[in-house]
Write a structure and sequence with these properties.
The structure holds two protein chains of two kinds. Chain A is mostly helical. Chain A has one domain: MetI-like (MetI-like fold). Chain A contains twelve helices and no strands. By secondary structure, chain B is of the alpha/beta class. Chain B has two domains: 180 residues, P-loop containing nucleotide triphosphate hydrolases (Rossmann fold), CATH 3.40.50; 63 residues, no CATH class. Chain B contains eight helices and nine strands. In chain B, the strands form two sheets. In chain B, strands 5-6-7-3-8-9 form a six-stranded mixed β-sheet, sandwiched between helices. A three-stranded antiparallel β-sheet of chain B has the order 2-1-4, with helices on one face. In chain B, strand 1 and strand 2 form a beta hairpin. In chain B, helix 2 runs parallel beside helix 4. The longest helix of chain B has 24 residues. Chain B is globular and about 55 Å long. Chain B starts with a strand and ends with a helix. In chain B, 47% of the residues are buried. Classes of the chains: A mainly alpha, B alpha/beta. Chains A and B meet through helix 1, helix 8 and helix 9 of A and helix 2, helix 4 and helix 5 of B.
Chain lengths: 289, 260
Protein backbone atom coordinates (compact mmCIF):
# COMPACT_ATOMS: atom_id res chain seq x y z
CA UNK A 1 0.00 0.00 0.00
CA UNK A 2 2.78 2.39 0.91
CA UNK A 3 4.06 1.99 -2.64
CA UNK A 4 0.85 3.34 -4.08
CA UNK A 5 1.02 6.36 -1.83
CA UNK A 6 4.64 7.11 -2.75
CA UNK A 7 3.94 6.80 -6.43
CA UNK A 8 0.91 9.02 -6.25
CA UNK A 9 3.12 11.57 -4.54
CA UNK A 10 5.85 11.12 -7.08
CA UNK A 11 3.39 11.54 -9.90
CA UNK A 12 2.27 14.81 -8.42
CA UNK A 13 5.84 15.99 -8.14
CA UNK A 14 7.48 14.52 -11.18
CA UNK A 15 5.08 15.16 -14.05
CA UNK A 16 2.84 12.90 -16.02
CA UNK A 17 5.12 10.15 -17.20
CA UNK A 18 6.18 9.22 -13.68
CA UNK A 19 3.01 7.17 -13.35
CA UNK A 20 4.49 4.51 -15.53
CA UNK A 21 6.97 3.77 -12.74
CA UNK A 22 7.00 0.17 -11.46
CA UNK A 23 4.45 -2.50 -11.90
CA UNK A 24 5.73 -5.64 -10.22
CA UNK A 25 4.08 -8.62 -11.78
CA UNK A 26 3.94 -11.80 -9.76
CA UNK A 27 2.88 -15.13 -11.12
CA UNK A 28 0.23 -16.89 -9.07
CA UNK A 29 1.16 -19.51 -6.48
CA UNK A 30 -0.33 -22.42 -8.40
CA UNK A 31 1.73 -21.42 -11.43
CA UNK A 32 4.88 -21.46 -9.33
CA UNK A 33 4.12 -24.84 -7.79
CA UNK A 34 3.47 -26.27 -11.24
CA UNK A 35 6.75 -24.87 -12.55
CA UNK A 36 8.54 -27.07 -10.01
CA UNK A 37 6.23 -30.07 -10.05
CA UNK A 38 6.16 -30.59 -13.82
CA UNK A 39 9.91 -31.00 -14.43
CA UNK A 40 10.39 -33.14 -11.30
CA UNK A 41 7.47 -35.36 -12.29
CA UNK A 42 8.84 -35.79 -15.81
CA UNK A 43 12.27 -36.89 -14.52
CA UNK A 44 10.65 -39.36 -12.11
CA UNK A 45 8.50 -40.75 -14.92
CA UNK A 46 11.54 -41.18 -17.18
CA UNK A 47 13.46 -43.01 -14.47
CA UNK A 48 10.42 -45.20 -13.80
CA UNK A 49 10.16 -46.04 -17.50
CA UNK A 50 13.85 -46.95 -17.55
CA UNK A 51 13.43 -49.26 -14.52
CA UNK A 52 10.34 -50.85 -16.10
CA UNK A 53 12.16 -51.41 -19.40
CA UNK A 54 15.03 -53.26 -17.65
CA UNK A 55 12.71 -55.37 -15.52
CA UNK A 56 10.15 -56.24 -18.19
CA UNK A 57 12.63 -56.99 -20.97
CA UNK A 58 15.07 -58.69 -18.58
CA UNK A 59 18.03 -56.65 -19.87
CA UNK A 60 21.26 -58.03 -18.34
CA UNK A 61 23.14 -55.67 -16.01
CA UNK A 62 26.36 -55.85 -18.07
CA UNK A 63 24.48 -54.25 -20.96
CA UNK A 64 22.48 -51.66 -19.09
CA UNK A 65 21.86 -51.36 -15.36
CA UNK A 66 18.50 -50.38 -13.87
CA UNK A 67 18.21 -47.12 -11.91
CA UNK A 68 18.07 -49.11 -8.66
CA UNK A 69 21.34 -50.85 -9.57
CA UNK A 70 22.95 -47.45 -10.13
CA UNK A 71 21.73 -46.21 -6.76
CA UNK A 72 23.07 -49.37 -5.13
CA UNK A 73 26.41 -48.90 -6.87
CA UNK A 74 26.54 -45.29 -5.68
CA UNK A 75 26.02 -46.59 -2.16
CA UNK A 76 28.39 -49.59 -2.19
CA UNK A 77 31.15 -47.98 -4.34
CA UNK A 78 31.07 -44.62 -2.57
CA UNK A 79 34.45 -45.39 -1.06
CA UNK A 80 35.96 -45.61 -4.57
CA UNK A 81 33.88 -42.92 -6.23
CA UNK A 82 34.01 -40.13 -3.65
CA UNK A 83 37.81 -39.55 -3.76
CA UNK A 84 37.56 -39.45 -7.55
CA UNK A 85 34.69 -36.99 -7.34
CA UNK A 86 36.82 -34.80 -5.09
CA UNK A 87 39.70 -34.92 -7.57
CA UNK A 88 37.44 -33.89 -10.45
CA UNK A 89 35.78 -31.17 -8.39
CA UNK A 90 39.15 -29.83 -7.29
CA UNK A 91 40.46 -29.62 -10.85
CA UNK A 92 37.23 -28.09 -12.12
CA UNK A 93 36.97 -25.36 -9.52
CA UNK A 94 40.66 -24.60 -9.39
CA UNK A 95 40.70 -24.27 -13.19
CA UNK A 96 37.60 -22.07 -13.12
CA UNK A 97 39.08 -19.92 -10.36
CA UNK A 98 42.35 -19.40 -12.19
CA UNK A 99 40.46 -18.79 -15.44
CA UNK A 100 38.33 -16.13 -13.74
CA UNK A 101 41.31 -14.33 -12.24
CA UNK A 102 43.36 -14.72 -15.41
CA UNK A 103 40.52 -13.89 -17.81
CA UNK A 104 39.38 -10.78 -15.98
CA UNK A 105 42.95 -9.70 -15.26
CA UNK A 106 44.15 -10.13 -18.82
CA UNK A 107 41.00 -8.44 -20.17
CA UNK A 108 41.76 -5.39 -18.01
CA UNK A 109 45.33 -5.33 -19.33
CA UNK A 110 44.21 -5.84 -22.94
CA UNK A 111 41.79 -2.91 -22.99
CA UNK A 112 44.39 -0.49 -21.61
CA UNK A 113 45.96 -0.10 -25.02
CA UNK A 114 45.35 -1.26 -28.54
CA UNK A 115 49.01 -2.26 -28.85
CA UNK A 116 48.87 -4.61 -25.89
CA UNK A 117 45.72 -6.12 -27.34
CA UNK A 118 47.36 -6.60 -30.74
CA UNK A 119 50.39 -8.16 -29.11
CA UNK A 120 48.60 -10.62 -26.84
CA UNK A 121 45.36 -11.53 -28.54
CA UNK A 122 46.88 -13.96 -31.10
CA UNK A 123 48.11 -16.17 -28.27
CA UNK A 124 44.72 -16.22 -26.63
CA UNK A 125 43.09 -17.15 -29.93
CA UNK A 126 45.64 -19.87 -30.75
CA UNK A 127 45.13 -21.40 -27.31
CA UNK A 128 41.41 -21.35 -27.85
CA UNK A 129 41.24 -22.87 -31.32
CA UNK A 130 43.74 -25.66 -30.74
CA UNK A 131 41.75 -28.77 -29.80
CA UNK A 132 42.57 -29.36 -26.17
CA UNK A 133 42.33 -33.11 -26.55
CA UNK A 134 45.21 -32.96 -29.03
CA UNK A 135 47.58 -31.11 -26.74
CA UNK A 136 46.66 -32.95 -23.54
CA UNK A 137 49.25 -35.76 -24.10
CA UNK A 138 51.91 -33.09 -24.69
CA UNK A 139 50.99 -31.33 -21.49
CA UNK A 140 51.43 -34.61 -19.62
CA UNK A 141 55.03 -34.63 -20.81
CA UNK A 142 55.75 -30.97 -20.11
CA UNK A 143 53.99 -30.64 -16.76
CA UNK A 144 55.57 -31.94 -13.55
CA UNK A 145 52.60 -34.19 -12.76
CA UNK A 146 49.28 -35.37 -14.16
CA UNK A 147 47.22 -33.16 -11.87
CA UNK A 148 48.81 -29.94 -13.09
CA UNK A 149 48.47 -31.13 -16.70
CA UNK A 150 44.75 -31.72 -16.20
CA UNK A 151 44.44 -28.40 -14.43
CA UNK A 152 46.15 -26.62 -17.34
CA UNK A 153 43.80 -28.24 -19.86
CA UNK A 154 40.69 -27.28 -17.92
CA UNK A 155 42.05 -23.76 -17.41
CA UNK A 156 42.82 -23.19 -21.09
CA UNK A 157 39.29 -24.17 -22.09
CA UNK A 158 37.49 -22.15 -19.42
CA UNK A 159 39.74 -19.12 -19.80
CA UNK A 160 38.87 -17.91 -23.28
CA UNK A 161 35.10 -17.33 -22.95
CA UNK A 162 35.73 -15.36 -19.79
CA UNK A 163 38.48 -13.32 -21.44
CA UNK A 164 36.57 -12.51 -24.61
CA UNK A 165 33.39 -11.68 -22.73
CA UNK A 166 35.24 -9.38 -20.36
CA UNK A 167 37.05 -7.63 -23.21
CA UNK A 168 33.69 -7.03 -24.90
CA UNK A 169 32.21 -5.82 -21.60
CA UNK A 170 35.03 -3.45 -20.75
CA UNK A 171 34.85 -1.97 -24.24
CA UNK A 172 31.11 -1.40 -24.34
CA UNK A 173 30.88 1.13 -21.54
CA UNK A 174 28.38 3.94 -22.17
CA UNK A 175 30.33 6.81 -23.76
CA UNK A 176 28.32 9.43 -21.95
CA UNK A 177 29.21 7.82 -18.62
CA UNK A 178 32.87 7.83 -19.65
CA UNK A 179 32.50 11.55 -20.41
CA UNK A 180 30.89 12.07 -17.05
CA UNK A 181 33.78 10.36 -15.26
CA UNK A 182 36.26 12.45 -17.24
CA UNK A 183 34.34 15.59 -16.37
CA UNK A 184 34.63 14.84 -12.66
CA UNK A 185 38.34 14.18 -13.03
CA UNK A 186 38.12 10.46 -12.21
CA UNK A 187 41.45 8.61 -12.24
CA UNK A 188 42.02 5.57 -14.44
CA UNK A 189 41.65 3.39 -11.39
CA UNK A 190 38.38 5.04 -10.29
CA UNK A 191 36.98 4.70 -13.79
CA UNK A 192 37.88 1.01 -13.80
CA UNK A 193 36.45 0.23 -10.36
CA UNK A 194 33.35 2.41 -10.39
CA UNK A 195 32.42 2.31 -14.07
CA UNK A 196 34.08 -0.25 -16.31
CA UNK A 197 33.97 -3.28 -14.02
CA UNK A 198 30.37 -2.84 -12.85
CA UNK A 199 29.14 -2.14 -16.36
CA UNK A 200 30.79 -5.34 -17.62
CA UNK A 201 29.10 -7.49 -14.98
CA UNK A 202 26.51 -8.85 -17.46
CA UNK A 203 29.34 -9.94 -19.77
CA UNK A 204 31.23 -11.40 -16.82
CA UNK A 205 28.15 -13.40 -15.81
CA UNK A 206 27.82 -14.80 -19.35
CA UNK A 207 31.52 -15.74 -19.38
CA UNK A 208 31.23 -17.32 -15.95
CA UNK A 209 28.34 -19.54 -16.99
CA UNK A 210 30.05 -20.70 -20.14
CA UNK A 211 33.41 -21.11 -18.40
CA UNK A 212 31.87 -23.01 -15.48
CA UNK A 213 30.30 -25.63 -17.72
CA UNK A 214 33.39 -25.89 -19.92
CA UNK A 215 35.81 -26.34 -17.03
CA UNK A 216 34.01 -29.52 -15.91
CA UNK A 217 33.83 -30.89 -19.44
CA UNK A 218 37.49 -30.05 -19.99
CA UNK A 219 38.51 -31.66 -16.69
CA UNK A 220 36.83 -34.90 -17.79
CA UNK A 221 38.01 -34.84 -21.40
CA UNK A 222 41.58 -34.07 -20.36
CA UNK A 223 41.55 -37.03 -18.02
CA UNK A 224 40.32 -39.28 -20.81
CA UNK A 225 43.10 -38.04 -23.05
CA UNK A 226 45.85 -37.89 -20.48
CA UNK A 227 44.92 -40.96 -18.52
CA UNK A 228 45.54 -41.20 -14.81
CA UNK A 229 45.37 -43.93 -12.25
CA UNK A 230 45.65 -44.81 -8.61
CA UNK A 231 45.13 -42.29 -5.88
CA UNK A 232 44.86 -39.19 -8.05
CA UNK A 233 42.27 -40.64 -10.41
CA UNK A 234 39.22 -38.53 -11.20
CA UNK A 235 35.73 -39.57 -12.27
CA UNK A 236 36.77 -39.88 -15.92
CA UNK A 237 39.23 -42.60 -14.99
CA UNK A 238 36.51 -44.39 -13.00
CA UNK A 239 34.30 -44.28 -16.10
CA UNK A 240 37.01 -45.91 -18.24
CA UNK A 241 37.94 -48.40 -15.55
CA UNK A 242 34.35 -49.51 -14.95
CA UNK A 243 33.86 -49.83 -18.71
CA UNK A 244 36.82 -52.15 -19.08
CA UNK A 245 35.55 -54.26 -16.18
CA UNK A 246 31.99 -54.31 -17.51
CA UNK A 247 30.93 -52.87 -14.15
CA UNK A 248 28.15 -50.83 -15.71
CA UNK A 249 26.30 -49.92 -12.51
CA UNK A 250 29.46 -48.17 -11.28
CA UNK A 251 30.02 -46.54 -14.68
CA UNK A 252 26.49 -45.15 -14.55
CA UNK A 253 27.01 -44.06 -10.95
CA UNK A 254 30.13 -42.10 -11.98
CA UNK A 255 28.14 -40.62 -14.85
CA UNK A 256 25.36 -39.57 -12.46
CA UNK A 257 27.93 -37.87 -10.24
CA UNK A 258 29.30 -35.94 -13.22
CA UNK A 259 25.80 -34.90 -14.24
CA UNK A 260 24.95 -33.77 -10.74
CA UNK A 261 28.22 -31.81 -10.62
CA UNK A 262 27.41 -30.15 -13.94
CA UNK A 263 23.93 -29.21 -12.81
CA UNK A 264 25.31 -27.89 -9.52
CA UNK A 265 27.86 -25.73 -11.36
CA UNK A 266 25.15 -24.42 -13.65
CA UNK A 267 22.92 -23.63 -10.66
CA UNK A 268 25.78 -21.97 -8.80
CA UNK A 269 26.88 -19.78 -11.72
CA UNK A 270 23.25 -18.89 -12.47
CA UNK A 271 22.79 -17.91 -8.85
CA UNK A 272 25.91 -15.75 -8.91
CA UNK A 273 24.78 -14.01 -12.07
CA UNK A 274 21.32 -13.47 -10.58
CA UNK A 275 22.83 -11.97 -7.42
CA UNK A 276 24.99 -9.66 -9.52
CA UNK A 277 22.31 -8.53 -11.95
CA UNK A 278 18.80 -8.99 -10.60
CA UNK A 279 18.39 -5.43 -9.37
CA UNK A 280 19.26 -3.70 -12.59
CA UNK A 281 20.02 -5.70 -15.71
CA UNK A 282 17.48 -6.59 -18.37
CA UNK A 283 18.75 -10.15 -18.64
CA UNK A 284 17.72 -10.88 -15.06
CA UNK A 285 14.42 -9.04 -15.12
CA UNK A 286 10.91 -10.08 -15.93
CA UNK A 287 9.11 -8.14 -18.59
CA UNK A 288 6.67 -5.78 -17.00
CA UNK A 289 3.65 -6.59 -19.09
CA UNK B 1 29.11 41.40 -13.21
CA UNK B 2 32.04 39.06 -12.97
CA UNK B 3 32.80 36.65 -15.75
CA UNK B 4 32.54 32.98 -14.88
CA UNK B 5 33.95 31.59 -18.09
CA UNK B 6 35.25 33.23 -21.19
CA UNK B 7 35.72 31.67 -24.64
CA UNK B 8 38.22 33.48 -26.83
CA UNK B 9 38.35 32.74 -30.58
CA UNK B 10 37.62 29.10 -30.02
CA UNK B 11 37.68 26.88 -33.10
CA UNK B 12 37.11 23.17 -33.24
CA UNK B 13 38.08 21.05 -36.22
CA UNK B 14 37.08 17.41 -35.95
CA UNK B 15 39.32 14.69 -37.33
CA UNK B 16 36.78 14.00 -40.10
CA UNK B 17 37.36 17.53 -41.41
CA UNK B 18 34.21 19.14 -40.02
CA UNK B 19 34.79 22.65 -38.76
CA UNK B 20 32.31 22.64 -35.89
CA UNK B 21 33.23 26.01 -34.41
CA UNK B 22 35.05 28.96 -35.90
CA UNK B 23 36.41 31.84 -33.82
CA UNK B 24 33.68 31.67 -31.24
CA UNK B 25 33.97 34.15 -28.42
CA UNK B 26 31.59 34.30 -25.50
CA UNK B 27 31.72 35.72 -21.98
CA UNK B 28 29.37 34.15 -19.50
CA UNK B 29 28.66 36.33 -16.50
CA UNK B 30 27.88 35.21 -13.01
CA UNK B 31 24.25 34.46 -12.32
CA UNK B 32 23.21 34.40 -15.95
CA UNK B 33 20.77 31.92 -17.40
CA UNK B 34 22.18 31.75 -20.90
CA UNK B 35 20.60 29.71 -23.66
CA UNK B 36 22.66 28.61 -26.62
CA UNK B 37 20.12 28.36 -29.40
CA UNK B 38 20.67 27.23 -32.95
CA UNK B 39 19.83 24.78 -35.70
CA UNK B 40 21.14 21.25 -35.34
CA UNK B 41 24.77 20.95 -36.33
CA UNK B 42 25.62 24.54 -35.38
CA UNK B 43 28.16 23.40 -32.82
CA UNK B 44 26.26 24.42 -29.70
CA UNK B 45 26.82 21.06 -28.01
CA UNK B 46 30.44 21.12 -29.11
CA UNK B 47 30.87 24.53 -27.49
CA UNK B 48 29.33 23.24 -24.28
CA UNK B 49 31.58 20.20 -24.23
CA UNK B 50 34.66 22.32 -24.79
CA UNK B 51 33.68 24.53 -21.87
CA UNK B 52 33.26 21.37 -19.77
CA UNK B 53 36.72 20.19 -20.76
CA UNK B 54 35.46 17.25 -22.83
CA UNK B 55 37.72 17.63 -25.83
CA UNK B 56 40.18 20.49 -26.23
CA UNK B 57 39.59 23.32 -28.73
CA UNK B 58 41.69 23.20 -31.91
CA UNK B 59 42.59 26.83 -31.30
CA UNK B 60 41.54 29.58 -28.94
CA UNK B 61 41.31 29.59 -25.16
CA UNK B 62 38.87 28.97 -22.35
CA UNK B 63 39.47 31.15 -19.29
CA UNK B 64 38.04 30.81 -15.84
CA UNK B 65 38.78 34.22 -14.30
CA UNK B 66 37.50 33.46 -10.82
CA UNK B 67 38.09 29.75 -10.36
CA UNK B 68 40.80 27.50 -9.04
CA UNK B 69 42.13 25.60 -12.03
CA UNK B 70 43.04 21.94 -11.74
CA UNK B 71 45.91 20.23 -13.52
CA UNK B 72 43.68 19.36 -16.47
CA UNK B 73 42.73 23.00 -16.96
CA UNK B 74 39.27 22.49 -15.50
CA UNK B 75 37.88 24.54 -12.66
CA UNK B 76 37.98 22.41 -9.48
CA UNK B 77 34.49 21.06 -8.92
CA UNK B 78 32.89 24.21 -10.23
CA UNK B 79 31.04 22.68 -13.14
CA UNK B 80 28.00 20.42 -13.24
CA UNK B 81 26.93 18.82 -16.52
CA UNK B 82 23.55 17.45 -17.54
CA UNK B 83 23.64 15.38 -20.72
CA UNK B 84 20.91 14.92 -23.30
CA UNK B 85 20.30 11.47 -21.87
CA UNK B 86 20.02 10.94 -18.12
CA UNK B 87 23.33 8.99 -18.23
CA UNK B 88 22.77 7.13 -14.97
CA UNK B 89 24.62 4.04 -13.84
CA UNK B 90 21.94 1.31 -14.01
CA UNK B 91 23.67 -0.75 -11.30
CA UNK B 92 23.46 2.06 -8.76
CA UNK B 93 20.27 3.28 -7.12
CA UNK B 94 19.27 6.94 -7.08
CA UNK B 95 21.34 7.67 -3.99
CA UNK B 96 24.40 5.95 -5.45
CA UNK B 97 24.11 7.83 -8.72
CA UNK B 98 23.93 11.20 -7.00
CA UNK B 99 26.81 10.16 -4.73
CA UNK B 100 29.13 9.62 -7.71
CA UNK B 101 30.75 13.09 -8.00
CA UNK B 102 31.39 13.15 -4.25
CA UNK B 103 32.63 9.57 -4.25
CA UNK B 104 35.17 10.39 -6.96
CA UNK B 105 36.44 13.17 -4.70
CA UNK B 106 36.88 10.74 -1.83
CA UNK B 107 33.96 11.95 0.31
CA UNK B 108 32.70 9.16 2.57
CA UNK B 109 29.11 7.94 2.28
CA UNK B 110 28.29 9.29 5.73
CA UNK B 111 29.66 12.75 5.02
CA UNK B 112 27.99 12.85 1.60
CA UNK B 113 24.52 11.88 2.81
CA UNK B 114 23.28 15.33 3.97
CA UNK B 115 24.25 16.98 0.67
CA UNK B 116 22.70 14.14 -1.33
CA UNK B 117 19.44 14.22 0.61
CA UNK B 118 19.26 18.01 0.31
CA UNK B 119 19.66 18.00 -3.45
CA UNK B 120 17.28 15.02 -3.91
CA UNK B 121 14.68 16.86 -1.84
CA UNK B 122 15.07 19.94 -4.01
CA UNK B 123 14.29 17.92 -7.16
CA UNK B 124 11.41 16.10 -5.44
CA UNK B 125 12.99 12.65 -5.28
CA UNK B 126 13.70 12.29 -1.57
CA UNK B 127 11.42 9.24 -1.38
CA UNK B 128 13.23 7.44 -4.19
CA UNK B 129 16.75 7.06 -2.85
CA UNK B 130 16.63 3.26 -3.12
CA UNK B 131 15.02 3.06 -6.56
CA UNK B 132 17.03 1.91 -9.52
CA UNK B 133 17.04 3.91 -12.78
CA UNK B 134 15.00 1.25 -14.63
CA UNK B 135 12.22 1.77 -12.09
CA UNK B 136 11.98 5.49 -12.87
CA UNK B 137 10.22 7.40 -15.62
CA UNK B 138 12.12 9.54 -18.13
CA UNK B 139 11.37 12.74 -16.23
CA UNK B 140 12.46 11.25 -12.92
CA UNK B 141 15.72 9.99 -14.41
CA UNK B 142 16.42 13.50 -15.67
CA UNK B 143 15.80 14.83 -12.17
CA UNK B 144 18.36 12.39 -10.79
CA UNK B 145 20.78 13.61 -13.44
CA UNK B 146 20.16 17.23 -12.41
CA UNK B 147 20.56 16.31 -8.74
CA UNK B 148 23.87 14.66 -9.52
CA UNK B 149 25.07 17.78 -11.35
CA UNK B 150 24.07 19.99 -8.41
CA UNK B 151 25.35 17.85 -5.54
CA UNK B 152 28.82 19.39 -5.66
CA UNK B 153 27.27 22.87 -5.45
CA UNK B 154 28.89 24.01 -8.71
CA UNK B 155 29.07 27.64 -9.76
CA UNK B 156 28.25 26.76 -13.35
CA UNK B 157 25.65 24.30 -14.61
CA UNK B 158 25.94 23.13 -18.21
CA UNK B 159 22.87 21.51 -19.74
CA UNK B 160 22.97 19.91 -23.18
CA UNK B 161 19.40 19.74 -24.53
CA UNK B 162 18.42 17.98 -21.32
CA UNK B 163 14.68 17.80 -21.90
CA UNK B 164 14.56 17.24 -25.66
CA UNK B 165 13.40 13.64 -25.30
CA UNK B 166 10.65 14.33 -22.77
CA UNK B 167 6.96 14.91 -23.33
CA UNK B 168 5.67 18.47 -23.32
CA UNK B 169 4.04 18.42 -19.87
CA UNK B 170 7.02 16.84 -18.15
CA UNK B 171 9.32 19.27 -19.92
CA UNK B 172 7.34 22.29 -18.70
CA UNK B 173 7.42 20.91 -15.17
CA UNK B 174 11.18 20.44 -15.34
CA UNK B 175 11.64 23.89 -16.88
CA UNK B 176 9.80 25.37 -13.90
CA UNK B 177 12.00 23.38 -11.55
CA UNK B 178 15.24 24.41 -13.23
CA UNK B 179 14.16 28.04 -13.02
CA UNK B 180 13.33 27.64 -9.34
CA UNK B 181 16.70 26.02 -8.64
CA UNK B 182 18.45 28.78 -10.58
CA UNK B 183 16.69 31.47 -8.53
CA UNK B 184 17.29 29.70 -5.21
CA UNK B 185 20.95 28.89 -5.71
CA UNK B 186 22.13 31.83 -7.81
CA UNK B 187 23.95 29.38 -10.04
CA UNK B 188 25.08 30.31 -13.55
CA UNK B 189 23.46 28.17 -16.24
CA UNK B 190 24.38 27.55 -19.87
CA UNK B 191 21.47 25.76 -21.49
CA UNK B 192 21.78 24.30 -24.97
CA UNK B 193 18.46 23.96 -26.77
CA UNK B 194 16.91 24.03 -30.22
CA UNK B 195 13.59 25.24 -28.88
CA UNK B 196 12.80 28.93 -29.22
CA UNK B 197 10.04 28.61 -26.66
CA UNK B 198 12.17 26.87 -24.09
CA UNK B 199 14.97 29.40 -24.41
CA UNK B 200 12.58 32.34 -24.26
CA UNK B 201 10.88 30.97 -21.18
CA UNK B 202 14.03 30.12 -19.25
CA UNK B 203 16.80 32.52 -20.09
CA UNK B 204 17.79 36.07 -19.40
CA UNK B 205 20.24 35.94 -22.29
CA UNK B 206 19.94 34.03 -25.55
CA UNK B 207 22.92 33.45 -27.77
CA UNK B 208 21.79 32.44 -31.26
CA UNK B 209 24.30 30.44 -33.25
CA UNK B 210 24.63 29.83 -36.97
CA UNK B 211 25.92 26.67 -38.55
CA UNK B 212 28.81 25.68 -40.84
CA UNK B 213 30.94 26.86 -39.25
CA UNK B 214 29.42 27.34 -35.80
CA UNK B 215 29.57 30.96 -34.74
CA UNK B 216 27.70 33.38 -32.53
CA UNK B 217 25.12 35.08 -34.75
CA UNK B 218 23.17 37.15 -32.24
CA UNK B 219 23.41 37.87 -28.55
CA UNK B 220 20.04 38.85 -27.13
CA UNK B 221 19.78 40.02 -23.54
CA UNK B 222 16.24 39.55 -22.24
CA UNK B 223 15.39 41.80 -19.37
CA UNK B 224 12.08 40.88 -17.91
CA UNK B 225 10.71 41.57 -14.51
CA UNK B 226 7.81 39.22 -15.02
CA UNK B 227 7.62 36.13 -12.86
CA UNK B 228 8.10 33.21 -15.19
CA UNK B 229 5.22 30.91 -14.44
CA UNK B 230 2.15 29.57 -16.23
CA UNK B 231 0.85 33.11 -16.82
CA UNK B 232 4.11 34.21 -18.37
CA UNK B 233 3.73 31.47 -20.98
CA UNK B 234 0.58 33.18 -22.30
CA UNK B 235 1.69 36.79 -21.80
CA UNK B 236 2.24 39.38 -24.50
CA UNK B 237 5.82 39.86 -23.40
CA UNK B 238 6.59 36.16 -23.88
CA UNK B 239 5.02 36.24 -27.33
CA UNK B 240 7.10 39.28 -28.31
CA UNK B 241 10.25 37.59 -27.02
CA UNK B 242 9.62 34.40 -28.97
CA UNK B 243 8.99 36.54 -32.08
CA UNK B 244 12.33 38.29 -31.73
CA UNK B 245 14.18 35.08 -31.02
CA UNK B 246 12.46 33.24 -33.89
CA UNK B 247 13.42 35.97 -36.30
CA UNK B 248 17.04 35.91 -35.16
CA UNK B 249 17.09 32.12 -35.50
CA UNK B 250 15.58 32.27 -39.00
CA UNK B 251 18.23 34.78 -40.07
CA UNK B 252 20.94 32.60 -38.56
CA UNK B 253 19.68 29.61 -40.50
CA UNK B 254 19.51 31.62 -43.77
CA UNK B 255 23.02 32.98 -43.31
CA UNK B 256 24.25 29.52 -42.49
CA UNK B 257 22.79 28.21 -45.74
CA UNK B 258 24.26 31.08 -47.80
CA UNK B 259 27.60 30.77 -46.08
CA UNK B 260 27.85 27.29 -47.34
Amino acid sequence: MSDTVTFAKAAAEAGTDSQVAIVVSRSSISERVLSIVIPVLMVILAIGAWQAHIVINEVPRYIMPAPLDVVTALWTDWGTLSPSLLVTLRITFLALGIALVGGVGLAIILVQSRWIELALFPFAVILQVTPMIAIAPLLIIYMPDTQSALLTCAFVVAFFPILSNMVAGLKSVDHNLLNLFELYGASRWQTLVHLKLPSSLPYFAAGLRIGGGLSLIAAVVAEFAAGSAGKGAGLAFRLLESGYRLNYPRLYAALVLLMVTGVAIFALTSLISWVLLHRWHESALKREN
Amino acid sequence: MRTVVSMRNVSKLFSNGTLALKDMSLDVRRGEFLSLLGPSGCGKSTALRIIAGLGAPSSGTIDWPSSQISKKGLPEGDVGFVFQEPTLMPWQNVWGNVYLPLRLRGVSKKDADPAIMEVLTSVGLADFTKSYPRELSGGMKMRVSIARALVTKPKLLLMDEPFAALDEITRQKLNDDVLRLWRETGITVIFVTHSVFESAFLSNRIVVMRARPGQVYADLPLVTSAVRDEHYRTSEEYRATTDTVSRALQEAIMRGAQGK
